[in-house]
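Board notes (copied after class):
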Amino acid sequence: MRVFITVMSILIPVTMIILGYYFSIRIPKKINFYFGYRTNMSMINEETWKFAHRHIGRTWIVSGWILLSVTIIALLFLIGKDVETVARIGEIITYVQCGYLILTLIPTEIALRKTFDKNGNRKK
């Protein structure tokens, strides 16, 4: 049970790191509704699509490493605790990570709006 909770607790930060590197290096070639950073602003045209993926990729790499470090430190404090406590803290960690993941979208949307107008044309 403890191993499962540990793995689940590091799943979100590790996924952020992996997708961050992926989006920084290999942007999905075509704008699609299935895979990638899909918001109204990022899907306007090819340039906004590429910009958004590079930006969120860098954001997720940095944020993922920070989140992973904090998570591992928090999990170290749970060594020797009973399973119920570990499960409860693991649940809280996961909720915090989900909130943090959602908050990482804000800088990319701000960067898109600073760089492009509402039609997807680069601002001068």
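Comment from the instructor: The first helix runs from residue 2 to 25. The mean pLDDT is 93.
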